[in-house]
Amino acid sequence: MSNDQQMEEILRRLDKAERDARFARDWVEIANLHGRYNHLVLGHYWDKIIDEMFAKKTPGVKAEIVESGVFHGIEGVRRVFRDMLGKLYNYEGNLALHELTTPVIEIAKDGNTARGMWYTWGPNTFHDPEKGTKAIWQVIKYNHVFVKEDGKWKFLDFRGYLMFRSSFDKGWVNEPVIQGSTIKGPDESAAIQSDEPTSFHCPYDPSRNWGAEVPLPPEPEE
Question: Which of 56, 152, 194, 212 has the most CB atoms around it within 10 Å of its CB?
């Protein structure tokens, strides 16, 4: 191998190492973004989530939390997180503990956008007007699009699909979706209206091959 060929091979390897290092750094930063989100949810830091974690300069910002519908723009994000979630879960004894599992993060070749999917397992609560605070199990599948703004990753299209939401004692087979704890609250006529209908809402159903209907994780770019 000539000196020129050796130099060409070294430069090729260096370029690949730099790209791999950038993608590894991006993977960690996206994972940290979502991890921070889940920590903030527990304390109901809605404004911090909205102001610091969502894109502000890129068109197409959206948010959808289970059966809430799809909300557009940063003001739509504010409506679903602060005005809807903030009011729905504003009671003594609330527990919104969401643990992230099974991450799949695929970063576009240009390094400016990414897709990510996780499950979140939660020992949670909801408030029954008659029985008070009740323990529930809840699993949500996150399905997001991220964008890099000013060198930092942000949520661009935030989706959370309900897998099941069951009472602690009955479990997900006997009660896949507990009644009275929908994201819109018990009085849907007073619910905040979304900009478009819910894109995917297909909770666990023990009577059919339900898992085949759940969206698959993102694939890497060719």
Answer: 194
pTM, two decimal places: 0.92
- The pLDDT score that the predictor gives to residue 182 is 66
The predicted-structure confidence for 104-116, as pLDDT tens digits, reads as follows 999 999 999 999 9
How does 160-176 read in b/e, with b if 16+ C-beta sit within 10 Å?
Answer: bbbbbbbbeeeebeebb
pLDDT tens digits for range 3-50: 777 777 767 787 777 888 899 999 999 999 999 999 999 999 999 999
Among residues 206, 140, 142, the alpha carbon closest in space to that of 172 is found at 206
pLDDT of residue 180: 63
CA distance 75 to 69: 14
Collapsed DSSP state (helix, strand, coil) of residue 199: coil
Q: DSSP letter at 188?
A: G
CATH top-level class of 3-213: alpha beta
Q: Where are the domains of the chain?
A: 3-213
Nearby residues of 201 by Cβ (< 8 Å), 6 or more positions away: 66, 67, 161, 162
